[in-house]
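Entry 12.
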Amino acid sequence: MTFYITPYTYHRPRRWMRTAFAESDREFALAVNIREEKDEFVLNAFVPGLKAEDLNIQILDDTVSLEGEFKTGDGDYLVSELPNGAFHRNLRLTAPVDADKAEAKITDGLLTLRLPKADSARPKSIKITSK
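Predicted 3D structure (C-alpha cells):
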C-alpha cells in the first residue's frame, strides 16, 4: 500500500488567492521603518526609481500620509518582482508633529523623512524653588 503525504495543503489556496488579487489590485502599502528619537521621528522607506515630484507627503497633527506610484516599462517580463503600481500609506504617530519643520530627502532610492515633534509634545522641565 502506498500513501501520499501532502504537508501544508492550506498554503496552496492562500498562495493562489494572493497572486490572483495581486494582479487585479494594483495599490499596496509602502513598507516603512519609523524610529522615535528625543525630539523627532525618523521615517525610512525604500522608493526605488522615484523622484521627489513622484511622491506626495502630507502631515496633519500626528498623521503622515505617503502616496505615489511606481512606473514600469511596457513589455512582457519573464520575472516581475519590482514594485509597480500606486501606493498609499497613512501612519499615525504617538505625538503631534511640527509640519513646518519637517524635512524629506531621497538618496539612492531611500526616502528619509525627519518629523520634529511639536512643542506641545516635547517634555518640559520645571525648576523647583525652595523657601
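Annotation: The domain at 27-121 is CATH 2.60.40.790 (Immunoglobulin-like). Strands lie at 32-36, 40-46, 55-60, 63-70, 85-92, 103-107, 110-116.
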